Amino acid sequence: MKNLLLVILLAISSTLIAQTSGKIIYDEITKLEIHLPPGFEAPVDFPSENTVTKALYFTENESLYKPIPQEEKVNAINTGDLHLEIKNEIPDDVYYKNLIKGQKTEKRDFLGRVFLMNGAIPEFKWKIAPEQKKILDYVVQKATTTIDTTEIIAWFSPQIQISNGPYKYGNLPGMILEIEDPQNNRVLVAKEITLGAPSEEIKPPKKGKKITEEEFKKIREEKLAEMEAEYGGKGGVFIQIDEEN
User: Fold this and answer.
1) Predicted TM-score of the model (pTM)
2) Residue 125 to residue 114: CA distance in whole angstroms
3) Rg for the chain (alpha carbons), in Å?
């Protein structure tokens, strides 16, 4: 009887671990809005969106969100005086969360410079809606919040009993498997879920210059304005896909 009880307890323990740890692969899909100079048209097969694949490694207490190595793709337009290239060069950005401490460490790779930002995990005020659907084999429920006057939609699954999600998102009674972000023309959606012990060590990034989020925002805005003036001022087209929300 004791042996049987021990087996049952071990089975229950394994099930709980499987439900609160694992790896989720997300596609981050950003719609591209390209406005070419008058008289120029993009080829029919020119991409209308850019997709980056990232992984969320998680346990009950911590998580790590980072890109998966993938082949660089280049799409180009060459018509007379116009040369336009879109490359899906993927920065080695990392977002670490410690759910117990309520703290995050974010590593941002921006134009060859690496920055580290520490701070509190954002707390979102969600409104849970009655709508449901399925993502992979999981039933998810809709929730909404507002960021800078834009409504963000999340789809979360109570079947994965962790208040977490990709990037900075969380604070719902279950794992977030999809985010709709109209402000940035972006959708984050899970395409593969593997529960169990994470396949990668979860720890905060260490390399990079430590700055505040305000300092990073100022550096980014100044550099992007400089590049836009340089390329746009010469009749070129400058495109920046940023994951800052």
Assistant:
1) 0.81
2) 31
3) 21
